[in-house]
Task: inverse folding
């Protein structure tokens, strides 16, 4: 019987040559997206009353979703949970302002914050259109968020962060040991 022992030098990522680093990055190009990476974005949407039902990041980049409760409730939750610099925040403010304008339009002219019962049908028709447009807008906002998250996770910076955080070791050629 013969026994052979092989010794292999292993390196941390920052100890690799530039060529070996490129190899390591290329080999781990999907390390941050080979799982359900979008779940945190879906959870964020749930906190504002939006259930994302699907999305696509290819040529027809889009997200589809539905209200958990209503457009009005979602807009209020956005104002509570999303910062003023977030695109959804500005869209929620616009939606609520337009909704208030509709309520005043279909009021009795005295109580401008209530829809008059004779005008409920017309108000509902216009409000449904407003809700539909708001849903499209918020889904587009989430589509952009998902796109940016995907791009970041697949960026060289994020791949290197993952490699370093996991303290992976490599052969001299940049192959995982």
Result:
């Amino acid at each position: 019987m013969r026994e052979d022992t092989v010794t292999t030098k292993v390196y941390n990522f920052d100890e690799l040559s530039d060529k070996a680093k490129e190899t390591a990055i290329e080999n781990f190009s999907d390390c941050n997206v080979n799982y359900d990476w979008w779940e945190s974005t879906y959870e964020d949407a749930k906190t504002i009353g939006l259930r994302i039902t699907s999305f696509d990041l290819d040529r027809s980049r889009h997200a589809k979703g539905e209200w958990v409760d209503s457009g009005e409730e979602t807009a209020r939750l956005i104002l509570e949970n999303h910062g003023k610099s977030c695109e959804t925040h500005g869209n929620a403010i616009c939606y609520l302002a337009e909704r208030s304008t509709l309520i005043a339009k279909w009021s009795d002219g005295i109580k401008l914050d209530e829809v008059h019962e004779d005008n409920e049908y017309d108000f509902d028709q216009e409000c449904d259109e407003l809700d539909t447009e708001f849903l499209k807008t918020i889904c587009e906002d989430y589509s952009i968020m998902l796109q940016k998250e995907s791009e970041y996770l697949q960026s060289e910076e994020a791949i290197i962060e993952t490699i370093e955080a996991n303290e992976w070791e490599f052969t001299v050629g940049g192959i995982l040991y």
In short: The chain has a mean pLDDT of 96.
